[in-house]
Amino acid sequence: MPAYVMCVRLRESELKTNRENIDSLRDRNVILTELCRWSLRLACCRRPLVQSVKCVQPEPSSSGSSGSSGSSSTPIGLLSEDNRSRHSRSHSTALRVMHIQPGIRVPFVLNVNTERYRQLWVLEVYLCGNSAEAKRAVAEMSTKLGLTVLDKGSLSAAGELEDFPLQLFPEWRLPLRVAVSLTAFFFFYLVIRDVVYGYVEQDKDISYRIMVSLANKVFPIVSLIMLALCYLPGGIAAFLQLYRGTKYRRFPDWLDRWMLCRKQMGLIALGLAFLHVIHTFMTPTRYSVRHKLITLVVDEMENNKTTPFYFDNTEAWGQDSFYALGILGFFLYVLLGLTSLPSVGGSLSWREFNFIQSKLGHLTLFICTAHGYIYGWNKFLRPSTYKWYTPPGYMLCLIVPSVVLVLKALVLLPCVDRTLTRIRQGWERNQPTEEIGKVTNL
Amino acid sequence: MPAYVMCVRLRESELKTNRENIDSLRDRNVILTELCRWSLRLACCRRPLVQSVKCVQPEPSSSGSSGSSGSSSTPIGLLSEDNRSRHSRSHSTALRVMHIQPGIRVPFVLNVNTERYRQLWVLEVYLCGNSAEAKRAVAEMSTKLGLTVLDKGSLSAAGELEDFPLQLFPEWRLPLRVAVSLTAFFFFYLVIRDVVYGYVEQDKDISYRIMVSLANKVFPIVSLIMLALCYLPGGIAAFLQLYRGTKYRRFPDWLDRWMLCRKQMGLIALGLAFLHVIHTFMTPTRYSVRHKLITLVVDEMENNKTTPFYFDNTEAWGQDSFYALGILGFFLYVLLGLTSLPSVGGSLSWREFNFIQSKLGHLTLFICTAHGYIYGWNKFLRPSTYKWYTPPGYMLCLIVPSVVLVLKALVLLPCVDRTLTRIRQGWERNQPTEEIGKVTNL
Amino acid sequence: MPAYVMCVRLRESELKTNRENIDSLRDRNVILTELCRWSLRLACCRRPLVQSVKCVQPEPSSSGSSGSSGSSSTPIGLLSEDNRSRHSRSHSTALRVMHIQPGIRVPFVLNVNTERYRQLWVLEVYLCGNSAEAKRAVAEMSTKLGLTVLDKGSLSAAGELEDFPLQLFPEWRLPLRVAVSLTAFFFFYLVIRDVVYGYVEQDKDISYRIMVSLANKVFPIVSLIMLALCYLPGGIAAFLQLYRGTKYRRFPDWLDRWMLCRKQMGLIALGLAFLHVIHTFMTPTRYSVRHKLITLVVDEMENNKTTPFYFDNTEAWGQDSFYALGILGFFLYVLLGLTSLPSVGGSLSWREFNFIQSKLGHLTLFICTAHGYIYGWNKFLRPSTYKWYTPPGYMLCLIVPSVVLVLKALVLLPCVDRTLTRIRQGWERNQPTEEIGKVTNL
Question: Quick one: where's region Disordered (chains A, B, C) (predicted)?
């Protein structure tokens, strides 16, 4: 077996527990002294270590038995540790090395993320390489040292493999931008409608509302819109397929990108719903609310003395069902969030996953929308609702969800559904030619 | 190396990132043109694609080096993609193909769930096959294409492997049925006791209570019963083992099935407890509650003028400890739920898992039961509690938990515990014969 | 291929589903009758089974093709099932067996945790062994039987591998001790300051507060301190590195141990914060609170008749921002907790993980500390705050967080930050010699 040097650094403690393992590595001439000295390094570094390339002459006997390319050039084991700056990564180190010394053979690239190791107690090692021989040997060694090896295919994958630890939430950018801009818009819109209006027209200072009351209006609004935006592309895609009469054509890029960030949108929506719920629970303990309550009682006492005073039954019904819908909606929301956990979602079969994300998802959207409509109730009749001729926030936030639900309802119509199902099972209005071609050359 | 065609379809974007990987596939004569054309398909389909079987002549040189069966028949790579209806799956496709063309060799079955891929960014590929050669080659290829291969053993596993994506929560059925039926029963029971009773006897309309108040009575009741049902089979099993004097005999099927769905029962119980908690938090903001409070104050004002009026210390103690128990119980509930997450539970050692699920579980049950008892307190003395001679809901819900706790207490008795431990360590009241037989032939 | 006996026990149902798999095992002479009989055992045992060692003569033909050691001694497949008591595990069984019969060859150790299997539907099998031949064969067999094999390297790992299921939260001990002692201290401290003080000085019995009010003071205090303790070692380490001028020296052991239990500390802090939040939500429904409210109203009525009576705007602002900060803090708290889930944290790249745990973590700490300061507000001016000349709890709990935040602020100073970054990128104030040595021999 040829000599592969794996530059794995371990902490002293690790070394203690893995002593025998490491001893059993001797026959693979890993220089243990090096290993121990480096181990000290890792012990006291907070970030991944510096890149290091080591090379060792293979024994003449082994060079024959090594991987596909029988060249007797020097094998180089690469341990990339990704502390390069974002800007200095035009090429992967592996490819750069091969470029510098064309004759050389790089059997494997090990990507050790030492930071994660310190904090999550997992040392995942991404391994890629061309010579299966080398990979097998290194994987074995890593296993013995207690590292988990994830094979990432050939050396050509070295680039992304080495860049992986440098990326920062690439797929969260778009959803976050949408969420932030929506929040900002509604926040200022409501500040103007409530606080400024109250100050200008009725000349009273209710600026304290900004902290909690307004937040508790903005969060649910944005949350509901974000949730609707999760399910809007699905509807658009369905009608696009109906219009084209085939599923074998790509969607426009914007739709594709949108679809790929539905999960993140949903999670952000869940987070906002969570905030909305907490705000609601805090409400009764707030000073202003208690003050209003007391004022109410005192007025009650002075104006009408008829106790027990009037109990509005419809009011009770309306508010309670408003709450019930909200609670149920939030419950389903959380359920959706849980199934989007990698470990939970990964254990679901496709049908289960589809059931939850599509059926339960639309049900959640429906319930939350109903929650919003009941909140509005008959306010939209009163002229006092339209301060400065602007519609209240909850009206604006109900537009998108309603559209999504209408689209979904249309898709569920038997006639539409039948066609769509057939299309999605591969039927096309006009059979493409290469299909036939493929069939014949069988 | 023989020619295995893997019908993996990838999205354009994937192709871009994996370009070099795919180039490096050339020497395994995967027809790249095909691959790219199909990739367009996957890009615009919402559901797994149609089944497809491709076959390629192996090179004469390779047929010898291929797996166990040295037959020179045509190898067929199967990519099953599970969009068959639930009804048309009498046989696995792999076996069907082998049945159609008996001479043929099916080296592997790849099960690609493309839908999951689109949404969870994992493309898990279930691989099973008879020829190790083929499996190794395909696994390598898949890795290069960025798929994660899960080896599922021999081709005989193709059946379940292809059916997996079609199953819909098989192990959740029983617990859900129990939960739904219990909820329905208690709901109607309480509707009759509260609303109907109030309407008939006292002739007042409190139907608004159905939405929130009743829900907040039904959920905790069902939740507590479900939690108790999680731990009842354990107790039954213990006594069954004590009675039989051995652990080496199967439990009756009903008990076995019951035991296998304890996890789901617990999770449903947690869900209901969660709903109960949210309902409780919403209470003070409800119209009816505020109305009652105001009425109380107004009455207070008119009847006795002595302020500060009487503060009932025992009342405060009782209610606070009632709340404290509820909070602690819910906290442990959530803890139990967290450890039942695959990723969390999977990282626990057996002893930790046993500690949490058994010890913490029974503690939770105990606390929640105490929560229920304090709620009842001395109400059971008043005749007014038994409307129409029916016991209130909380009494009914305390039966099962009490039984479970009594069983657990019995098992914890030193004498019983000792015997049980010995039995569970393999001791039997009457040693079976094959044991001795096994010992001798060592 | 030699004969490896794998003592895997399966449940009847498993056998039914895996029938063909097991049939396909025949050619590896696993004694199926044994397998079936044992399966009955597993079906009715609640705990891992007894240890069992079986041995089978290898066929002469295979002994040559078997792993590295070409000895024709008897191969023994070990299935350790960890029901040994904690005290009787001086050696691993594998090593013990090898010690008893020195000539013998133990090709593999299978560690089946049957309990987990019953409840989480995963049968993880830890496999370790010296002969790659044996391991491959066993791994294949296990896969066919539906077990997931985790290769744990050479036989020398058998010890820890067999002990794993016996350990009980080793890394949670220290954090839990800290949490419990802090909770106990603050509980008694507050009991004395509130209840005892009230009883002795003002001679009124407010003991009922112990249940909820005090808990709701103790939990946030301890939670905040624990959170601060998560980020304190980071600061200490930074200054230690600055002082030493190199990152290539180990930290003292106490700091190392502290750093390794940061995750657990954070999770405990989250748990306490969760309890604090629930307690807060329960507040308005409490008897004592409602009583106080009513008293307030009644007083209001009798003393000043001017309605609407005075609305304190700063009070509203202060309290609302206090709540807003608390809510935001808890939200970030939960976010941190979620990313520490193995499945979530495992899917993060290093940069993302670092961003969340370091940046978001310090932000959370800052917000929660601000929450505490606003709670205190100007109370510290009133002499009535210092009952019996003792500072209130919230003052004590603000010390550690403030220190941590100051440290962090110092580290963020440009001059300090620059030096630290250079040090962490490997720069040292005095270059060690072996570095040069390493460079030259390249």
Answer: 56-86
pLDDT in tens, C50-74: 233 333 333 333 333 333 333 333 3
* B276 neighbors B223 (Cβ within 8 angstroms): yes
Q: Do B251 and C44 touch (CB under 8 A)?
A: yes
Question: What tokens were used for B318?
Answer: 């009782």
**Chain B residues whose beta carbon lies within 8 Å of the beta carbon of residue C37:** 434
- Count of positions (residues) in chain A: 442
Domain ranges of chain B: 4-61+72-166, 170-424
Tokens of A353: 């996953």
Name the residue with higher pLDDT: B381 or A360.
Answer: A360
- Across the interface, of C24, C167, C286, the residue whose CB is closest to B319 is C286
pLDDT in tens, B110-126: 544 444 334 333 455 56
Closest CA to C341 of B124, B341, A273, A115: B341
Positive or negative, the Cα torsion across C147, C153, C159, C164? negative
Q: Do C353 and A43 touch (CB under 8 A)?
A: no
Determine which of A7-16, A110-119, A154-163, C92-101 has the lowest per-residue pLDDT on average: A7-16
Out of C55, C119, C299, the one facing B307 most closely (by C-beta) is C299
Residues of C in contact with A164 (CB under 8 A): 349
Quick check: C241 and A284 CB within 8 A? no
Residue C236's CB is within 10 A of a number of other CB atoms, namely: 16
Q: Report the percent of chain A where pLDDT is more than 70.
A: 55
User: Comparing C-alpha atoms, which of A82, A89, A93, A91 is closest to residue A164?
Assistant: A82
Looking at the complex, report in whole angstroms how far the Cα of residue C33 sits from the nearest Cα belonging to chain A.
33
Please determine, for residue B149, whether its predicted confidence score (pLDDT) is greater than 80: no
Distances (CA, A) of C83 to A49, A258, B428: 42, 53, 17
Cα separation, B115 vs B389, in Å, equals 56
What is the model's pLDDT at position B44? Answer: 26
- Strands B52-55 and A148-151 turn out to be unpaired
CATH class given for the domain over C4-61+72-166: alpha beta
Contact predicate B25/B82, CB 8 Å: no
Q: Is B313 helix (H, G, I), strand (E, B) or coil?
A: helix
Q: Out of A118, A167, A215, whose CB is closest to C351?
A: A167
- Is it true that the peptide bond before B308 is cis, omega within 30 degrees of 0? yes
| Distance of residue B344 Cα from the nearest chain C Cα, in angstroms | 7
At how many degrees (to 10) do helices C414-424 and C213-244 cross? 70
Best of C122, C131, C291, C350 to disrupt the A interface by mutation (most A CBs within 10 Å)?
C350
How large is the ipTM? 0.73
Q: Give the closest of C237, C315, C321 to A211, CB-based.
A: C321
**Contact assignment for C351 to A208 by CB distance below 8 Å:** no
Q: Which residues pair with A77 in a beta bridge?
A: A54, A108
* pLDDT tens per residue, range C64-116: 333 333 333 334 444 433 333 333 334 444 455 455 444 444 444 554 444 43
Residues C21, B157: C-beta atoms closer than 8 Å: yes
Asked if the Cβ–Cβ distance from A353 to B143 is below 8 Å, we say no
Kindly state the tokens that stand for B116: 């999951």
Closest CA of chain A from C388, distance in Å = 30
CB-nearest to C40 from B160, B248, B335 is B248
Determine the pLDDT at residue B86: 35
Q: How far apart are CA A98 and CA A74, in angstroms?
A: 11
Per-residue confidence (pLDDT) for residue C162, from 0 to 100: 55
Across the interface, whether the CB atoms of A143 and C160 are under 8 A apart is answered no
CB–CB contact A249 B44 (8 Å): yes
Q: Mean pLDDT across chain B, nearest whole number?
A: 69
Q: Which chains sit next to B, with 3 or more Cβ pairs under 8 A? A: A, C
